[in-house]
Design brief:
The chain is of the alpha+beta class. It folds into three domains: 7-86 and 101-171, no CATH class; 177-260, Orthogonal Bundle (DNA polymerase, domain 1), CATH 1.10.150.130; 288-457, Orthogonal Bundle (hpI Integrase, Chain A). The protein has helices at 97-102, 135-154, 162-172, 177-191, 195-212, 223-236, 241-260, 288-301, 303-315, 319-324, 356-365, 393-404, 414-427, 432-439, 444-454; strands at residues 7-10, 15-18, 29-30, 33-34, 46-50, 81-83, 107-114, 119-125, 330-331, 336-339, 350-353, 375-379, 383-385. Strands 5-8-7-6 form a four-stranded antiparallel beta sheet, covered by helices on one side. The protein has a three-stranded antiparallel beta sheet with strand order 9-10-11. A hairpin with a 4-residue loop joins strand 9 and strand 10. Helix 6 (223-236) runs antiparallel to helix 7 (241-260) and helix 8 packs across helix 9 (303-315). It is globular. The relative contact order is 0.08.
């Protein structure tokens, strides 16, 4: 739940009175650029335009007050509005008006009085959100951005006067742990952090807040409180090393964010100790016998999941990426599948080769006869379908299979399919570079580390030279 502050500006005395709570806070950060900053006006997504006489029409410059005498004006800015680019006059076949609108460059626009020039100046912000082309997601994020600027302006923030912003921030700097959590969550959502990562961060931060109370101030937390919390839960909840360290990492990210935005001077987690990690047993590699049993069961009971498993095995595309995969990204002529950046885990658009065995499966589906915006796994009945399936649909259906085969206690997951594929590639003589490319890893070092961890649990069939 985002926090809401409204600050009434008394222009005659130049004092601020806090009347309720701030939403988003004064220094929510997207990436490395503060969302409210007077330091970076002329960069992409943050554009400043001076208002000279005759430049704008009445439509582009709402006259909510007489700006000629600013000493007595009750408002120094116009209400921010969302502009969705050019009007869509024609919709191509197979598309929709909302999809065409989402292709436009959107921005949040408002005018703010510059006392130095006695002019209203126009500001436009998009904060790199135009990279998003999915209509609903784009509208939701821009609506949040719009609300952010509305509340910030109501709260006394100025896109021009950094000194006033610093004064305002000092008045609210003593955030509570719970308020800090709200800002931390908003930051990661705006940044585009994966949903599961945000959930993981917030679960650990929430546990910390529950332990010390939501009203405790962030600047009251020292390394003692961090260590006491971690040690208490390690003993009372029998935490293993990996759980202890993961919790410490989440808390470190939370307090690192607060330090970066000047709410605290020192990150209290930095010097706390870690634990020796015990290798996790999740995502175990299938035995050949178990994998054969799984394929046979799916063949007889769940054709949808059978193809889903085969897709992971032959392409090493991650389960989430498969859920989001639309047919327009499958090129049967070049025999490639391109995972677009906005759905890829590493945010890079890279091609995946279609193996001959998987090509046969695609040909059976006649994917070339469906509209390009259909999803490869859009229907559990027909497989290809117009809608994206739910986040937990593949997981739940695969669990049914494992339960039927009494394999739930072996720590198998859908990622086990990807791991098995890479083990077999390695045993078949694939080079590290080839496996790196197939998995779309960022470097050979990443692939080597991945295989090193993977092959610990795999028996080799290579003979030791006799002596």
């Amino acid at each position: 739940m985002l926090l809401i502050i409204k600050i009434v500006i008394n222009l005659q005395t130049a004092k601020f009175k806090i009347t309720s709570k701030i939403r988003h806070g004064m220094q929510e950060v997207i990436g490395s650029t503060p969302i409210f900053s007077t330091q970076a006006l002329n960069v992409p997504g943050v554009q400043l335009f001076s208002n000279t006489p005759g430049t704008y029409s009445d439509k582009t410059l709402p006259q909510h007050a007489n700006f000629g005498g600013m000493e007595s004006a009750e408002i120094t800015y116009t209400t921010p509005r969302l502009v969705k680019g050019k009007n869509v006059e024609a919709v191509p076949k197979g598309s929709t008006k909302s999809k065409e609108e989402a292709k436009q460059s959107w921005y949040v626009e408002f005018f703010f009085h510059n006392p130095g020039t006695s002019q209203m100046e126009r500001f436009r912000f998009s904060k790199n959100l135009n990279r998003i082309k999915e209509p609903k997601e784009k509208l939701n994020l821009f609506t949040e951005l719009l609300d952010t600027y509305k509340d910030a302006l109501d709260g006394g923030w100025s896109p021009i006067d950094e000194k006033s912003n610093e004064k305002l921030k000092r008045e609210i700097v003593s955030l509570t742990l719970d308020k800090g959590k709200g800002l931390f969550e908003a930051y990661h959502k705006a940044k585009g952090t994966r949903k599961k990562s945000i959930q993981s961060y917030l679960s650990k931060v929430k546990a910390f807040i529950n332990f010390y109370g939501e009203h405790k101030k962030v600047n009251e937390i020292t390394d003692y409180e961090i260590t006491h919390f971690l040690n208490h839960h390690e003993q009372s909840q029998k935490w293993k090393g990996v759980t202890y360290n993961n919790t410490r990492i989440c808390l470190n990210n939370y307090f690192k964010y607060l330090k970066k935005n000047k709410y605290i001077d020192i990150n209290p987690v930095t010097d706390t100790e870690t634990r020796t990690k015990i290798a996790t047993e999740s995502h175990q590699v299938f035995s050949d016998a178990d994998f054969k049993s799984i394929l046979e069961w799916l063949q007889n009971h769940d054709p949808y999941m059978l193809l889903f498993v085969k897709a992971i095995y032959y392409t090493c595309i991650r389960p989430k990426e498969l859920r989001y995969l639309q047919l327009k990204y499958i090129n049967l002529e070049s025999n490639t599948i391109t995972i677009p950046a906005h759905i890829a885990k590493n945010k890079k658009s890279l091609p995946v080769n279609i193996d001959v065995s998987f090509r046969n499966e695609l040909d059976k589906l006649n994917v070339a006869n469906y509209p390009g915006d259909y999803y490869l796994f859009g229907s559990t009945n027909t497989i290809v379908g117009p809608n994206r399936i739910g986040e937990n649909t593949p997981y739940n259906r695969f669990q049914v299979c494992l339960k039927a085969l009494k394999l739930l206690n072996k720590n198998y997951t859908l990622y086990s399919v990807k791991h098995l594929s890479n083990v077999k590639k390695f045993k078949a003589g694939w080079t590290i570079a080839e496996i790196c490319s197939a998995n779309r890893h960022s470097s050979l070092v990443e692939t080597e580390t991945y295989l090193k961890d993977l092959l610990k649990f795999v028996q080799t069939d290579k003979l030791i030279p006799a002596i």
